[in-house]
Each structure stands twice: as structure tokens, then as C-alpha cells.
User: Fold this.
Amino acid sequence: MDALDALDALDALDASDASAGCLIQNYTRLPVTFTHGEGAWLWDDKGRRYLDAIAGIAVCSLGHAHPAVTAALCEQARRVTHTSNLYRIAAQEKLAGELARISGLETAFFCNSGAEANEAAIKIARLAARADGNNHPVIAVARGAFHGRTLGAWSATDPLGEHPGTPPPLAPGFVQTPFGDIAALEKTADETPQLCAVMLEPIQGENGVRIPADGTLRAVRELCDRRGLLLILDEVQTGLCRTGAWYCFRHEGAAPDLLTTAKALGNGVPVGACLGRRETTRHLAAGAHGSTFGGNPLACAAALAVIKTMEQEKLHEQAARTGDYLLGELRRALAGVPSVGDIRGRGLLIGIELDRPCQALAQTALEHELLINVTAGRVIRLAPPLIMERAQADLLVERLTAVIANFGDGA
Assistant:
């Protein structure tokens, strides 16, 4: 049995196999198993084809089985996949340079996910504060935020929205402030003498694609400069062309001191990074932080292929064009549907807010061979591959309109 035959045999396993019961039940999974994909399409083990409008939660921005990423992975796997950070890694150094070039920041720490990147940013900010004599540093975070489910990142996440049941003890050193409210942030700074940083998402993805008013990010940057605070931007979801720019902060020219990036960076291969100004990241000295797998040759090969492809295909421009088209078509098609409220987005990150909880619509969409995600209870989140074609965008609107138009109290 060769490698492809072995994969086919695994794909053929019945999803109800008893081994599925060995999984911890911390996810609510839809009843479908995908075997392969191409571009914006995924096929299940029954042979049905689905239009993917969520891309693994904004991960597979180049679509599925992209030839450039596949070639990079195969070539690197034939040579070496992992050596650890005990040694220099040429691909990691090259990737750091590429990320510095497209972000405008200077240094990079590599890890495996957005949550890990956020943990690194939190640690760096606190180390920098301690170096300045602030022994109990506090970071301002936004209500409705989502920064991950590791302990530090979870503690920076809105406790009302993302800590179901009785949460474990949370890490201290965070203070909540309303998202996009500059006056409230000023007040928080006045009342928190040990404040060292502001951490936020340029657009809140998990909270329903919440987009602050134009100029908000620039105003936060100016506040941080006046107050001597670091600005940490979580661009795990909004980065890498998703909103029509390499990073969302570029829409306003409000460069952060620390920036976290992941999701689309590996197009499905786990890789994340915390980027920063050299003056800030110098506080992360040898031994202060680390990652066994972070930035290994395989992950970096994938990430380098992703960045090269995004640049060659000008996917930031395509995301802006396709996103504007999708927003216009969705607003037109859903204009007369009573349950639909706001339709908002930037680039190919779009939220459709309904007037009631609509988690069941993900299952309904599945029956229409469409993959979507519902977040914040009643917001349909769309984050399709950036390579989505106009005809596929039209099909997305057609299928999603059919799903929403039949949405009733029992859905």
C-alpha cells in the first residue's frame, strides 16, 4: 500500500467508528467529513461538493490544495521537517525578513498558533513594563475581544462572551474597556496608573465582525504615544490580505509596537508569529520564551509559499474587489428579508447579523452544500478563500439567500 492508498483507506473510515468516542467532546461538530479539496471547493466522503465560505475560519486563504503550498511542503519534507530552535533555520530567518518587509516591523518570534502569538505579545509587553519599573503591569483589552483559549489569551478575552460555565481562575493584569470608544480608553488610562499596553483586534471577528468607526485605530495609536503605552494588534484573523491590505492597520497607517499573525500564514499548516519593533522585543531575552515546533523548516516553507503567492497574485487587491462585490450583492439579495439586520465587512471578512439566534443555519447551509460559520450567536461570518472567483461569489449569494430566506423561529 503506497502513501496515497493509505490516505484513501483512512478517508474511507466510517465517521461513526467507535474511535470517534475517544475524542474529548469540546467541539460541536457538524455531521460531515471532508476527504479532499481544490480552490474554494471541498468534497465529503459521500462525494458531495461544497462551496467553502469560511476557509477553515480564515485559514485557507489560498484555497485548498494550492499547488504552490503543496510543492513547497513536498520539497521541504524530502529534505528535513524539524531540527528545533537549538540551531539556525534558514527558512525561518527568510520568513522573518519577509514578514518584516510586509508589516513594517523589525523582528519575529515564531510559534504554532494565534493564541501562542498573543501569549508572546502579552509576555513581551509585561517584560518591557517591568524593565521600566512597573512591577504589576496591566493591559487594556476590549469588551467583545477574542484572543485565544490559552490561559493568558483567554484572560484577555471578554469574560462575558468567551468563558462558558464557571471559568477557571483567570490571569490578573487585564482591564476591560469598550471596543472602539476612545473616551472610555482615555478614562481607563487615567484610572489605571500601572497600564502598560493596549491590546485589540482591528476588527472583532469572533464577536460578529465588529468594525470600529474610521479613524479609531489611528486615535488609539495617538493615545498610546501620548501615554507611553505599547499598542498590541491581534491580526490573527484580519492579517495577510483578508481585509484588502497586507494587515488591517495599514488602512489607517496606525502601526503597532507588537503584532500577532497566524491563521492564513500557513494556509492550514500550523504557524504563527509575534512581530515587533526591535526596541520592544529586545526584552524577550534568551530563555525567556520558546517553542519546540515554532518556525520549523516545514511550517516556514509553507508560509514563504503563501506570502510569495499572495504577492504575485495581488490577493490584497482581489480581496478588496471581491469583498466589495459580495457586500453589494448580499445587501441587494437580502434587502427584503425581515430577519436580516446589518450586513457589514471589510475585504473578505463579512458579517450578516440576524434578529435572533441562528446557530442552526450552519447545518442548514450544509444541506445547501455551502460552508458558513455563525458567531456571536446571531451573526453569519463569511471568510472565503481570497482566490474566490466572481461566479463562485454569485453562487455563494444564491445559496446563502436561500438559506436565510427560509429562516424561521424554529430554525
Remarks:
- The radius of gyration is 21 Å.
